[in-house]
Design brief:
The chain contains six helices and four strands, in the order αβαβααβαβα. It has helices at 15-28, 47-58, 79-82, 88-94, 107-119, 153-164; strands at residues 35-40, 64-70, 98-103, 125-130. It has a four-stranded parallel beta sheet with strand order 1-2-4-3, with helices on both faces. Strand 3, helix 5 and strand 4 form a beta-alpha-beta unit. Helix 1 runs parallel beside helix 2.
Length: 170
Amino acid sequence: MTPGVDTSTGSLGQGLSVANGMALAARLDGKSYRVFAITGDGECDEGQIWEAAMTASHLGLSNVTVIIDRNGVQSDDATERIKKKEPLDRKWRSFGWQVLEIDGHNFMQIHHSFDVADWTTDRPTVIIARTVKGKGLSFLEGDANSHNLSFSEEDLDWAMDELRQPEIDT
């Protein structure tokens, strides 16, 4: 029901395969749109991610952009304790992808990385967005245990109040 969001695939690594299909359909239909897949870093445990990464590179799907939320947390524990991810950038490069690493909280870097992906015509692009879990919420920021919490109406009001506060540089 969200315009521009065609599918939601969850945490099993299927999003990139779906994105590849959409990007290939664009090519076959003579369309020039770009397909984005947003994944969590824990999703990179899934073999399907790497199969889809090889496929996108092999087919030259330069209209595919993957954004990895690299916050270091997945549902069970810290990502590096579950399965080593680093050097994540080199892994994606070895599959033939253009790799961009950014501060995932910096809107200028996010915008610029989308431009660079759009300018790239010879391979797919992955944006590794380094983030902090729960950024901006004092009761969640950096807390790996906050992954599967449910919130009361009071918690939601508190969170919204904190997010509305201007950030003050000290």
